[in-house]
UniProtKB/TrEMBL annotation:
GO terms for biological process: DNA damage response. Keywords: Signal. Residues 1-18 form the signal peptide. It comes from the Bacteria. This is SIMPL domain-containing protein.
C-alpha cells in the first residue's frame, strides 16, 4: 500500500512539473567564433618638409609624395592608394618673441599622409622597402579584404545558428521536452566580428638617403581576424 502510494505521488509530481513548463518562455543565447587568416595589409606612409619658404617646402613634399607613390604602384600594381591628411603650419622662433608683438615666423612645416591597402602580401616587404626610400612608414595593420569577409559570411552565420540549435536541443532533452514542442518566438543576431591582429606595427623609420645600402627589409606575419557572432532567441514551449 505504501509503495503504491509513493508511485502515485511521484506520477502526480511528474505531471505537475511537465504542466508547469507548458507555455513557458525560454531565453537562450549562443556565441561562436571563426578565425580567418588575414589577407590584406593597411599601411600608412607620411612625409614632412620644413623651409623658410613655404612654397619650397610644399614643392619638395609634393616631389617626395609623387616619387613614393610611383614606387608603391610599381611594387604592387593592384594596391589601392588614397591621400590622407595634409597639414601646414608656421614654426616660430621662441627666443625672439617679444611681449606685445606678434611671434616671428622662421619656417613653415608641411606634411602629408598616404593610405595604402594591399592584398598581395607576397609583395609587401618589397613595397615597404621601396616606399621608404622617400616616405616614412608610420603604421601597419593586417585585416580581411572584402572578398574574404564575403566568403566567410555564410560560414559564420551557419556556425552560430548551429551552436544555438545544439544548446536548445540539450535544454529540451534535460526538461523532458521534444523539439516539436518548441516554438521560436524571437531571434536576435549580433555580429561582433573584429580584427585580432597578431602583428600590429608602428614605425617611424626615416627614408633612406640617396646611395645608402638597402636593408633586407621587414618580415611580416599577417595573423588572423576573429569573426564572432552572438545569437539570442526566445523559445515558447507548447502543450503536448
Amino acid at each position: 500500500m505504501k509503495k503504491l502510494l509513493l508511485v502515485s505521488l511521484l506520477s502526480v509530481a511528474g505531471v505537475a512539473a511537465a504542466q508547469s513548463t507548458n507555455g513557458a518562455l525560454i531565453t537562450l543565447s549562443a556565441q561562436t567564433s571563426i578565425r580567418v587568416e588575414n589577407d590584406q595589409a593597411a599601411i600608412e606612409f607620411s612625409a614632412e618638409e620644413q623651409d623658410a619658404d613655404r612654397q619650397q617646402a610644399i614643392t619638395r613634399l609634393n616631389q617626395r609624395m609623387r616619387t613614393g607613390t610611383e614606387q608603391i604602384k610599381k611594387s604592387d600594381p593592384s594596391a589601392m592608394l588614397q591621400t590622407g591628411s595634409v597639414y601646414s603650419y608656421p614654426v616660430y622662433d621662441a627666443g625672439r618673441a617679444k611681449p606685445g608683438k606678434a611671434p616671428v615666423i622662421i619656417a613653415w612645416r608641411v606634411g602629408q599622409k598616404l593610405d595604402v591597402k594591399s592584398a598581395d602580401l607576397s609583395r609587401l616587404t618589397g613595397l615597404v622597402g621601396e616606399a621608404q626610400k622617400n616616405l616614412q612608414m608610420t603604421q601597419l595593420n593586417f585585416g580581411l579584404s572584402d572578398a574574404a569577409k564575403a566568403k566567410t559570411e555564410q560560414q559564420k552565420f551557419d556556425s552560430g545558428y548551429k551552436q544555438f540549435s545544439h544548446k536548445l536541443s540539450y535544454l529540451l532533452k534535460a526538461m523532458g521536452k521534444s523539439e516539436a514542442q518548441a516554438e521560436l518566438a524571437e531571434l536576435n543576431v549580433t555580429d561582433m566580428s573584429g580584427p585580432v591582429p597578431e602583428m600590429k606595427m608602428m614605425a617611424m623609420a626615416a627614408p633612406m638617403a640617396d646611395g645608402a645600402t638597402q636593408n633586407p627589409g621587414f618580415r611580416f606575419e599577417p595573423g588572423f581576424s576573429e569573426l564572432n557572432i552572438s545569437i539570442e532567441g526566445k523559445v515558447r514551449l507548447r502543450k503536448d
